[in-house]
Amino acid sequence: MAVDPSAPHVDLRPIGVFDSGVGGLTVVRALRRVLPAESVIYLGDTARVPYGTKSPRTVERYSLACQRFLLDRDVKLVMVACNTASANALSALASASDVPVIGAVRPGAQASVEDSSSQRIGVIGTLATIASRAYERAIAELDASAHVSSLACPLLVPLAEEGWTDGPIATAIVERYRRQLCALDSDIDTLVLGCTHYPLLKGEIERLANAITSREIRVVDSASAMAGAASALLGDRANRADSVGALNIFVTDATRMQELSTRFLGERASGFELVDL
Amino acid sequence: MAVDPSAPHVDLRPIGVFDSGVGGLTVVRALRRVLPAESVIYLGDTARVPYGTKSPRTVERYSLACQRFLLDRDVKLVMVACNTASANALSALASASDVPVIGAVRPGAQASVEDSSSQRIGVIGTLATIASRAYERAIAELDASAHVSSLACPLLVPLAEEGWTDGPIATAIVERYRRQLCALDSDIDTLVLGCTHYPLLKGEIERLANAITSREIRVVDSASAMAGAASALLGDRANRADSVGALNIFVTDATRMQELSTRFLGERASGFELVDL
Fold first, then answer.
1. Rounded to an integer, what distance in angstroms lies between the CA atom of residue B257 and that of residue B83?
2. What is the DSSP pairing of strand A15-19 with strand A40-44?
3. Active site residue A66
4. Per-residue pLDDT tens over the stretch B141-169
């Protein structure tokens, strides 16, 4: 790997990313756009997905095991792509790690507060994420005056996993959820995609959001926000060489991985290794 | 409760039904159509739904706990509305029960073999049910010459749970899956709805199945098939009085229950009790 000799602080260790499933590969995709030279180790706990239906204690235990796997591979940064793990286990993860830990909720919340001029913010996510109120809490911590409207959109995950991300079905479903969200607050100017699956639908969501309203609605995807947070946190320790870093994908169950990994990663994964946590 | 005195064999104990979630309420709905006088106890293990992503050993453990709960309430019959539990735990459940146990897979498989004249049968279900090949095995046991084509339809469960069971979105999604199934075998004459959520979409599925093909496609829903199997098994021990039996619903987590129970049951539940297994 070509390293700029004028950048003595560069830390060549990989970045670790984990998620309960494959959705977190959209975070890897965003990372490879922002920091292409970084090596990345991804762990998807696909045998135990979803975390959203499990007890907070179980989520913490599984999340700590995922993080341990990454720390054992000498990562310089842990990124928790799973919203449920971020909402329930982030402080336990940070306590158990000697490298920085970036969660899924805070970067998206931060970007929405920065992007919104009216502080009327919409959040969409899975049933579990919306029920956890994690985004509402994170946004309130950043700006107590912000008005947050949240909507669970349970059809969007299977829609993304099926790869039906454009065309009439995606349009009709996104449009129906858009109307439900507008019924909660027709004045939102910023919409947070609070699920790692949703960046695959970002085009459709942006198109519909802006086709209807007279003013622009900014769409914040938490995957891109996390990649931005990683870049900011690493600063001059980030590998910004003109090369493409290695990507190693580990999963706890390989079912549908070939199909799904390509869809979420946006590039063909060279392979993935099956591990038992 | 009015009991026909000329039916001395009638067993007035309730029928027990359990499922990992709310979907099994479609089995209760079918039961109440076929055997309205029967009292029913339903247990939805909604805190641990879905079972489809858990290990066979865990599924067996959870299923035994669900059955224990029903047996402790003196049921005369246990109905396992969960496809995953039926595929992984049925023999363990039958061994642990002193009353008959009816699973979700066999009745639907049986009905499809009886209904099909060409023995070209389609099966749709969740990713977990289709991956388990439970219907294929059950149909092969009944008729080794049957040709089974299976398709996972992951959008249908959230579609049913959202209550979007008719209208353009349901039509477009069902039509897309229909085309995928026809690509596997354009000659199927019978389609098994291998998921307890799907009876809510039966109208849409039947309409589309028959609009396209020149001959009729019979749609077998496993909920109705299970209710028929219960009626046949109970015979003259069934309560066939001219009255409406009691229905008691127990769940391990009450989130969304009010909304979902009405949708799946087709009547307003008088309430549900939260239990810890």
1. 20
2. parallel
3. no
4. 999 999 999 999 999 999 999 999 999 99
Confirm whether B195 is a catalytic residue: yes
Q: What tens digit of pLDDT does each residue of B68-121 get?
A: 999 999 999 999 999 999 999 999 999 999 999 999 999 999 999 999 999 999
Q: CATH says B106-222 is which class?
A: alpha beta
Domain A105-222 has CATH 2.60.40.1930: no
Q: Do B158 and A161 touch (CB under 8 A)?
A: no
Nearest to B162 among A53, A155, A162 (CB): A155
Give the side-chain half-sphere CA count within 13 A for A78: 32
d(CA B51, CA B60): 10
Tell me B76's DSSP state: S
Higher-pLDDT residue of A112, A58: A112
Longest dimension (CA), chain A: 56
Structural contact between residues B205 and B153, judged by C-beta atoms closer than 8 angstroms: no
3-class DSSP state for residue B127?
Answer: helix
Domain ranges for chain B, please list them.
Answer: 15-104+225-274, 106-222
The rounded distance, in Å, linking the Cα atoms of B204 and B198 is 10
